[in-house]
Amino acid sequence: MAMHATLLGSESRIADVDSRVITVWEKYKAAHVVVDITAGNPNLVVSLMAKDPTSSKNYSLLQSSTINSGTTVLKVGPDYTAGTNVAKDYVPYMFYASVVQSGGVAATYSVGAVFI
Description:
- This protein has a single domain, classed as Jelly Rolls.
- The model has no long low-confidence stretch (mean pLDDT about 95).
- It is about 0% helix and about 55% strand.
- The strands form two sheets. The chain has a five-stranded mixed beta sheet with strand order 1-10-4-7-8, with no helix packed on it. Strands 2, 3, 5, 6 and 9 form a five-stranded antiparallel beta sheet that branches.
- The chain has no helices and ten strands.
- The protein is an all-beta fold.
């Protein structure tokens, strides 16, 4: 059974932001993270991050290409072929998104995740 999580709700932002940390209680193999820009023309780079619960250290799973508009899907899963916006890896126990927004342009966007 799949699980959905809102990492960042739709709102106008101009600064870098980290989503809340999602604890993935069930054993899901893959995640699709949907970045949906509905207003503005920003330069977003979204990093999908894991958090080690023992050390509290964070590490990167995937860094997106620059996202300027529309809807972009980032994928993490062991059965995928690694490439642009795709990581060949398992979904970690603790997971979040970090968004770097450059150019000083306000944008309205959301980031959601589906774990499968």
